[in-house]
TrEMBL record:
Domain SAM-dependent MTase RsmB/NOP-type: 130-474
GO molecular function, one term: RNA binding
Organism: Cyclotella atomus
Feature: compositional bias, Basic and acidic residues: 521-534
UniProt similarity note: Belongs to the class I-like SAM-binding methyltransferase superfamily. RsmB/NOP family.
Secreted as UniProt keyword: no
Protein name according to UniProt: SAM-dependent MTase RsmB/NOP-type domain-containing protein
Domain of life, per lineage: Eukaryota
Pfam family, one: NSUN5_N
Active site: C391
Alphabetical UniProt keywords: Methyltransferase, RNA-binding, S-adenosyl-L-methionine, Transferase
PANTHER family, A to Z: 28S RRNA (CYTOSINE-C(5))-METHYLTRANSFERASE, NOP2 YEAST -RELATED NOL1/NOP2/FMU SUN DOMAIN-CONTAINING
Amino-acid positions noted as binding S-adenosyl-L-methionine in the UniProt annotation, renumbered to this chain: C240, A241, A242, P243, G244, N245, K246, E283, D314, D334
Segments of this protein annotated with the region Disordered: 514-551, 564-592
């Protein structure tokens, strides 16, 4: 029997780890392979994601004690490194902790199976129970595409779809759909709804719903609603547009705002041959440009309000004075970045052997590119507002870029002071608590830093790490105090606002301690039946259908949390005992 069950995920992991991938992420690779018959399926995608998320832990185990295990299994000498990583994940961290199939690579790994399991157990003991945690489960955010549908219609469709499924997951329950308090038209669903929506829901496939993380929605929201006095019936540029989620979100927001304008302010278009607003969407990669165009065609229907015009080209080579862009007043710049804020992204877990110096060089290279891109956006003479955003948590890609761009561009201006750029706190996110960082290499003041938006997926924001800055020319800044409560969301849908209901259920994927190959005795088989049930806190595997009572869920969640705290305490005590033992042994050996 061959090792074929892992050939496809292994080849994708190879591509992700290789510099020859051209920086493409997992989604881009999967999409390109899906264009041919027999592309990667759901199982392959899941295996690749989990393998990539565990590579840092696998490398830590292999590199311990001078890298003896790494050399023993021959990781650095094998031809198919990605396949070996997949097999190591399956053996050490997967549900069944075994490798299917056969072949030379499997034999190389199984030969050292006991040492590998001991290494994993030592790693978990040393780093605590959280060391084996594979992911953080955020709510599943679903943006309703109001260009094609409405909140009420989509809620009804989702409820009907959930009712048809035979599973007993939490997303089936009544009251499991919420409205986000910051982003209009954004629904908040239980994390367990993700796989269902990806595979089964017609609303997603038809483009009526877009699965988009909350923080990713901030860029378009801020550009469209950062200043209430800025005109809506103008053109925009999305400088780095593919795959198109932010582009199409901006289109929906502009269309919505145009509908709210009084008739006297709406652009008169007698012959109705040109849309009121055009979004010029740049993408320099031909492959990603095709993705962008396909996405725009699906999500933005032809209308007289807004249109998306994909451009195959490099934004940095565009001419700011091109007549084509004469009506452009806003630019959305979300350039390539390190992606360090994306908590569960497999793309952030590449080989894991890069030195600190290598990582620092890469971040600095990205920062230089981002600064050039932002300064180019600021050079468009008629543009009066810009959003610069990243999914990075590094200051070098965020506050430093913002600070340098402001100082360098404003110093070179010879025009009126009214053309100078300045940071503005976006009205639509006025009450978002997490803000930017003052001082440092960016040299921003406390006032400037308070205009910046940050999110942290590891510190309770329930969305991926993100950074948003909003610039306006001095001539258009609204100095009046905007009448806003910090959100433009109007809840007329008979749905509750999301206020951390899923976070309170402590939905975390818990680690399982690695163990030697399981025994096949009767008692072990009975234990296996119970141990293999999902360990999602807030949901008990044997919960009866009538258990939608919130009090019962809270009781179970507290019990689980108490048990986890006990396990963490035990792991810590064990680690301390091992440390003390090593110290005593060292003292005794020195005496001898």
């Amino acid at each position: 029997m061959s090792s074929s069950p892992y050939q496809e995920p292994g080849s994708i992991v190879n591509e992700l780890l290789s510099s020859k991938s051209g920086g493409r992420g997992l989604k881009s690779i999967i999409f390109s392979k899906n264009k041919t018959k027999g592309g990667p399926n759901k199982s392959t995608y899941a295996t690749v994601c989990k393998t990539m998320q565990h590579i840092p832990a696998i490398n830590a185990v292999l590199n311990d004690d001078g890298g003896k295990l790494r050399k023993a299994i021959g990781l650095d000498t094998v031809h198919n490194k990605g396949l070996m990583y997949v097999m190591l994940y399956e053996l050490l961290f997967s549900k069944y902790k075994s490798i299917r199939g056969g072949g030379k690579l499997k034999r190389m790994i199984i030969k050292h199976q006991t040492a590998l399991h001991e290494g994993v157990n030592a790693y978990v003991s040393e780093h605590g129970a959280a060391a084996g945690k594979t992911s953080v489960n955020f709510p599943r955010y679903a943006r309703v595409n109001i260009l094609q549908s409405s909140i009420n219609d989509m809620v009804k469709m989702l409820q009907e779809s959930f009712a048809k499924t035979k599973s007993e997951k939490p997303f089936d329950k009544a009251g499991s759909i919420f409205v986000d308090a910051h982003v209009p038209d954004l629904l908040v669903l239980h994390p367990s709804a993700s796989s269902f929506l990806h595979q089964n829901d017609e609303a997603v496939k038809s483009g009526n719903i877009v699965l988009q993380d909350k923080s990713s929605c901030f860029s378009a929201l801020v550009l469209a609603r950062g200043n209430s006095t800025a005109p809506v019936n103008c053109d925009f540029i999305d400088a780095c547009a593919a795959p198109g989620n932010k582009t199409t979100h901006l289109a929906a927001l502009v269309s919505s705002l145009y509908n709210d304008l009084p008739k006297s302010k709406k652009k008169k278009n007698g012959k109705k041959t040109k849309p009121n607003s055009t979004i010029f969407a740049f993408e320099r990669s031909s492959t990603r440009h095709k993705i962008l165009k396909s996405r725009a065609d699906t999500l933005v229907p032809t209308s007289q309000k807004v249109a998306v015009e994909p451009i195959l080209g490099d934004f940095l080579k565009s001419n700011p004075k091109d007549p084509q862009f004469a009506n452009v007043r806003g630019i959305l710049l979300d350039p390539s970045c390190s992606g360090s804020g994306i908590v569960n992204s497999p793309d952030r877990c590449r080989d894991g052997r890069n030195t600190k110096e290598d990582k620092a060089k890469r971040i600095q290279s990205l920062s230089n590119f981002q600064l050039v891109a932002l300064k180019h956006a600021m050079s468009f003479p008629l543009v009066d507002r810009i959003v610069y955003s990243t999914c990075s948590v590094h200051d070098e890609e965020n506050e430093v870029v913002v600070g340098k761009a402001l100082s360098e561009i404003n110093e070179t201006m010879t025009d009126s002071d009214e053309d100078h750029w300045q940071l503005v706190s976006p009205a639509c996110l006025r009450h978002w608590p997490r803000r930017g960082k003052a001082g440092g290499a960016g040299g921003l003041s406390e006032t400037q830093a308070s205009c910046l938006i940050r999110t942290d997926g590891l510190d309770g924001d329930e969305t991926n790490g993100f950074f948003v800055s909003y610039f306006e020319r001095k001539r258009v800044v609204n100095t009046e105090d905007l009448e806003t409560n910090g959100t433009h969301v109007v809840n007329d849908y008979n749905l509750p606002f999301y206020e951390g209901q899923f976070a309170n259920m402590n939905i975390i994927v818990e680690p399982k301690t690695a163990a030697p190959a399981p025994s096949k005795s009767k008692s072990d088989k009975v234990a296996k039946k119970t141990d293999n049930k999902p360990t999602v806190r807030g949901m008990h595997a044997s919960t009866p259908k009538q258990s939608d009572c919130r009090k019962l869920e809270e009781k179970i969640a507290k019990k689980k949390a108490k048990k986890l705290a006990w396990k963490q305490k035990q792991a810590l005590q064990k680690s301390q005992r091992l440390s003390e033992k090593k110290s005593k042994d060292a003292v005794n050996s020195s005496k001898k």
